[in-house]
């Protein structure tokens, strides 16, 4: 008889999502080997990865409605965070006047929270192993709501405004670093792609699209506080959904005794029902802030694992591949008000918001193109995963280079004072008369589109080359933290570099754009080439730095000895 697991007969039980089979000839009395479990329905014959336990408390075995409710609540929190990151881009010049500070001081209201959020994210990942994710979600979401409400009621105090924004940064860094980990807790590998795509699209829409709404409502009575009020209303719903719709997603599957020997009787077909519920009380009991199944004792090696990932070669190289362009895109976004709110353009918040049409549309279009193309190539099995992912980086690099140069040269060329245009008494020239906001938005959109594509390529490269899921999660977390750190610095620094200490900022814009474009394309192309040529060597170094062995999921701290160095985990 064929020893391959056969497709099981369809079960009549309702809500069945997991099926396990064992060939009669393979099973022996007392045999306690782990038997693979398979999906059914449209996923019949698909071996489930990771393998779920037999417990209904296992997030992999939750009913579909429970998974989607939890995922939806996390998406809503993600949307709020995206809106908060670009909340001030259309009103920065107005805040300079209201808070009595410099333009750089106003951009620091977003830059510094991003820097704080980068460190908070690393801390929350380590802490989640001891407390679970649900408690951190609840604390961070409530902190985000309260600090945003405080921001709405601050008038004229820069210090209070900064403190409230830093608290928001700490909260959003804690929250967003755990979302994709929860997605992997709840969904099997073959189910994750669509959810991660939805997550990324949500990020693009609310990060680059919310300024369009924010600029419009900021021209009404109470100004930018209307934005915060709308965000607070959405966040209040998010908190309610997190409380009642998001149980703990962490689960210690290895310690679940029901997973040992539940499928080892000879000639049996065992099913795990994920559609039944033990009632409303049982559901409420799963909403405890800290679930014993999702927490573990403190382990120094596990706590240090996210920090070790910061120094892994893949983390550092992927950071240099993606971060300069992503940081430049955010820096440019926080430059718009300084460039276009004063004369000669005198753009209102609504007009500044409409300039995000290019980034929003371009980001969505190019993300769709690169993700669909990558998916099609992976299904055909053409070339290696490294080829697909690093190949996707090429259009991102070129789009970013073209966008940075086009934006800087176009704005400088159309807005700089030019006396030669008015050298005749018959000439009537007005500074900025040739400037077109749609063209500037298109150029800005190229920059953001390149950043979206490049960030996608970097994330997919880490996922494809990591030795295990845990290693990939750690590398992605380290990459995100370093990228947020540089992004916060660029948000503060780009306006400063453009101003250059002079009254006329347009020559500074031209010089800064050329410098950033050249640095971006040189660094990104060099790193992409290094990852392509030395990919296997880099992967082995990742294992040494992280202290992992082979492709196993566990975290095993090792000694690293070379001729010139000694590292002990």
**Number of discrete domains:** 2
Alpha-carbon distance between the termini? Answer: 49 Å
| Strand line-up in the sheet with most strands | 2-1-3
Task: Kindly report the CATH topology of the largest domain.
Answer: Growth Hormone, Chain: A
Stretches where pLDDT is under 50 for at least 5 consecutive residues are 1-17, 19-32, 257-277, 550-569
Protein name: MFS general substrate transporter
Subcellular location: Membrane
Pfam families: MFS_1
Keywords: Membrane, Transmembrane, Transmembrane helix
Describe this entry's structure for a reader.
This protein has 19 helices and five strands. With 569 residues, the protein is mostly helical. The protein has two domains: 64-253 and 280-298, Up-down Bundle (Growth Hormone, Chain: A); 301-417 and 433-569, MFS general substrate transporter like domains (Growth Hormone, Chain: A, Up-down Bundle). The strands form two sheets. It has a three-stranded antiparallel β-sheet, with no helix packed on it. Strands 4-5 form a two-stranded antiparallel ribbon. α11 (313-333) runs parallel beside α17 and α11 packs antiparallel against α18. The two termini are 49 Å apart. Residues 1-59 are annotated as: Disordered.
